[in-house]
Amino acid sequence: MAESMVKLENITKQFGELHAVDNISLTIKQGEFLTLLGPSGCGKTTTLRMIAGFENPTSGNIWINQALVNEIAPYHREVNTVFQHYSLFPHMTVFNNVAFGLKMKKVKKAEMMERVYNVLDLVQLKEYENRKPNQLSGGQQQRIAIARAIINNPQVLLLDEPLGALDLKLRKQMQLELKHLQQSLGITFIYVTHDQEEALTMSDRIVVMNKGKIEQVDVPRVIYEMPKTLFVSSFIGDTNILKGMVHKKSNDELTLQLGAEMITVKKEPTIEVDDHVLLSIRPENIYFIKETESHDIKIPVKVIECIYTGSSTKVVTQLSDGQKIVIQSTNDAIVTKNTAAFLTWKKELTVVYKANEKEETF
Ligand SMILES: Nc1ncnc2c1ncn2[C@@H]1O[C@H](COP(=O)(O)OP(=O)(O)OP(=O)(O)O)[C@@H](O)[C@H]1O
Ligand SMILES: [Mg+2]
């Protein structure tokens, strides 16, 4: 296991009464691409600013590379930050923008030139060295900002929505470029986004935040397939949330009433008989089956709507108790609007939560 590069221990940041960051603990490994993901205002930027040293925690400790940095000024920390707005010097050429940090440190000219050309090569902008920022596209400007941030060989690069200002196509291209850059540099990236697809594409691990707290930390596949809380399941990707009630509990299974049907799912330790539960099932994990087929889960529904979306068809169906289930189907040949149909899904892809009156509905 790689060693810890950044460690947050019981970090809280209050602005007046507001707990912008509320007692979070997290260890980020050397060379890891870790993403802080969550809705606007959940505390992502505040967390990043505390790691950078632009903001002091109200309580808690921060370690970078095994050293306690609570009292260390930003420019003495082994981190660098890339912001959404590139903050390049408009009057300077690309070369001088990138060289700026080295000139401040009075690095010798030959070494400086070599290092600048090296990073310009890495971000594929060597031939643009004499241009000014306003003669570059948004994506090129952002690559210069990244070149400028990595030239001092920081141990950790903090990136706050660095692709937020780019259009979708460029954004997707830059996501892959950044991931490759991070892998070839081998440095730790702490990346902030509120775009779940971006997080799933780029990250080694994702930290899902909500209202200053951490909801789940795990690899993208587990975050997507086994969301620990209802918030995570609704925030990441599309899902169906269905109401049910626990009818029976055995050693490793729960039998639930869903509409007029009974289905069995994996046991959850905290859930008991007669509990009200919420089930989360992804639209792409549900399939239409023929009435004659037999499956563990087999639910009769009425087809309400079929919406063609190109690569698949979104089919809206309804259970006998009125609850709607949306299916993303690539084989919708067997269903038509206003007819009866049967659905199935794998029981291990059903995530069950205890219904909590305090829990928000999405
Ligand atoms: N300097 C400040 N003074 C007072 N409140 C602040 C300050 N900075 C942030 N906040 C508040 O703290 C909370 C968290 O803000 P933060 O900027 O960390 O959110 P975020 O997750 O980065 O959101 P976004 O996705 O919109 O950038 C918000 O409610 C914000 O209004
Ligand atoms: Mg922010």
UniProtKB/TrEMBL annotation:
SMART domains: AAA
Pfam families (UniProt xref): ABC_tran, TOBE_2
Keyword annotations of the record: ATP-binding, Cell membrane, Membrane, Nucleotide-binding, Translocase, Transport
Cellular component aspect of the GO annotation: ATP-binding cassette (ABC) transporter complex
Domain ABC transporter residue range list: 6-236
Top enzyme category: translocase
CDD domains noted in UniProt: ABC_PotA_N
Keyword Phosphoprotein annotated: no
Lineage per the UniProt record: Bacteria, Bacillati, Bacillota, Bacilli, Bacillales
Entry annotated with the keyword Membrane: yes
PROSITE patterns linked to this entry: ABC_TRANSPORTER_1, ABC_TRANSPORTER_2
Catalytic activity: ATP + H2O + polyamine-[polyamine-binding protein]Side 1 = ADP + phosphate + polyamineSide 2 + [polyamine-binding protein]Side 1
Record-linked InterPro entries: AAA+_ATPase (IPR003593), ABC_SmlMolc_Importer (IPR050093), ABC_transporter-like_ATP-bd (IPR003439), ABC_transporter-like_CS (IPR017871), Mo/tungstate-bd_C_term_dom (IPR008995), P-loop_NTPase (IPR027417), PotA-like (IPR005893), PotA_ATP-bd (IPR017879)
Protein name per the record: Spermidine/putrescine import ATP-binding protein PotA
Enzyme Commission number, as recorded: 7.6.2.11
Job description of the protein: Part of the ABC transporter complex PotABCD involved in spermidine/putrescine import. Responsible for energy coupling to the transport system.
